[in-house]
Design brief:
412 residues
Length: 412
């Protein structure tokens, strides 16, 4: 073995010894530290996740606090005077309007002192659509007088053991708190009501001009022509070309117009012209009257122009049409009480651009146009070129389309 080879082997062995010794020294010295650091990293990752969750919770509760603060400021409760105890029925009757209306009987139970106020008890029983009853309860709970629903039962209305579609029965026990003489003063109540009349986000009409022009439209009805529309709307059948010129982008052929189309007719002078203002936190009718009308004492004018919104402060996204008592899919289809055309037993006999002539389940010829109702659906489309019509159907919660083809096309 040569000298150089021997030295190389010796140096390699020395390097291996140093490397192995260094690894053993590092492993023995830092093994416990590695385990401790690993645990620390795990704990910090866990802490970080908890902090991220807490941050998310903080943002959520911050938003909720802001909403609650606005509600407390703009939906103040009022401790009504003792004389209002007997006026509860009139108040509930005012709440039960439009999409919150239902039939009910009302009974006053009695009144007794409680915690420096007077507590009156009532019983309300009735029936109606579930959505209307739910909206009524929302109005009651968010109204300014202090009423509490002590108990509530809602069930599907039945007759002779059979459920009645879309009607539920409700039994509600209410209590109301009233002043025994030490409630808010008239001026305090007036100020609270004035602020509570409007809420942030509400879009109010503000009168800007007493006169302006606005385009008048007309929706085409069955059997109408441009001449007939011109005679009815403009008083002169010869003015049909004016309507045609206004609607050239929509009407390619003046002799072909279709039911349901919306046509421009003429510019019409409108007496009142409004702009809309979105209410911001802190604004009142007085401040808006001062801003737009130059005098805060004119706040009643803005109140008058927006009575519908101010009297019904339920946001559209709160109003509900959902009925939990109604199954999403019916086990039994409703009867054809209106004697509508039954598509499953009908034959398409003839077509025009606007009408479908269909022989119904009794052999009677019927003329239908797009949008007309049939049993469990309505006519959705007339396809003259392909000789068919399409119906949009709702078979007890199962939605589908059904097509009828012309009999002379070899299909039914």
């Amino acid at each position: 073995m040569s000298y150089s080879v021997r030295n190389s082997i010796i140096l390699t062995l020395i390097l291996i010894v140093f490397a192995g010794g260094g690894y053993l020294w590092l492993y023995l010295k830092f093994e416990s530290n590695i385990g401790s650091l690993t645990n620390q990293v795990t704990n910090k990752e866990k802490t970080l996740a908890e902090l991220e969750s807490a941050t998310a919770d903080y943002e959520y509760f911050k938003d909720e606090l802001n909403k609650t603060t606005i509600q407390l400021e703009y939906f103040p409760k009022l401790l009504a005077q003792e004389s209002a105890i007997q006026g509860t029925y009139r108040y509930l009757d005012k709440l039960s309007t439009r999409r919150a209306s239902f039939k009910y009987d009302f009974r006053f139970v009695g009144v007794k002192p409680e915690a420096g106020a007077l507590k009156a008890s009532y019983v309300l029983t009735g029936e109606g659509k579930f959505s209307n009853i739910a909206n009524f309860i929302y109005r009651l709970e968010n109204g300014k007088p202090i009423y509490k629903i002590e108990s509530l039962t809602v069930k599907r209305k039945t007759t002779r053991g059979r459920e009645i579609e879309d009607l539920v029965e409700v039994n509600m026990q209410l209590t109301g708190l009233f002043s025994d003489g030490n409630g808010q003063s008239d001026s305090e109540v007036s100020r609270m009501f004035e602020k509570a009349l409007i809420i942030p986000g509400m879009r109010l009409k503000i009168l800007q001009e007493s006169e302006h022009t606005e385009m008048q439209y007309h929706t085409i009805q069955a059997g109408e022509t441009l001449k007939k529309i011109a005679e009815d709307q403009l008083g002169n059948a010869a003015s049909w070309r004016e309507i045609y010129d206004l609607n050239r982008p929509l009407i390619k052929n003046p002799h072909l117009i279709y039911r349901g189309q919306s046509l421009k007719i003429m510019e019409k002078i409108i007496d009142d012209y409004y702009v809309y203002h979105e209410v911001k936190p802190g604004e009142t009718l007085r401040s808006l009257a001062d801003q737009y009308l130059g005098d805060e004492d004119n706040w009643r004018e803005i109140n008058k122009w927006n009575q519908d919104k101010i009297q019904n402060q339920i946001p559209d996204d709160i109003l509900t049409n959902y009925d939990p008592f109604k199954p999403l899919v019916l086990t039994k289809l409703p009867p054809n009480l209106a004697d509508l055309l039954n598509v499953a037993q009908a034959k398409l006999v003839a077509l025009t651009n606007r009408s479908a002539f269909i022989q119904d389940q009794k052999g009677i010829m019927r003329s239908l146009q797009v949008g007309d109702k049939v049993y469990l659906g309505y006519l959705m489309k007339i396809d003259l070129n392909r000789g068919k019509v399409t119906f949009n159907m709702n078979k007890g919660g199962i939605y589908s389309t059904t097509t009828l083809n012309l009999v002379n096309a070899g299909k039914d």
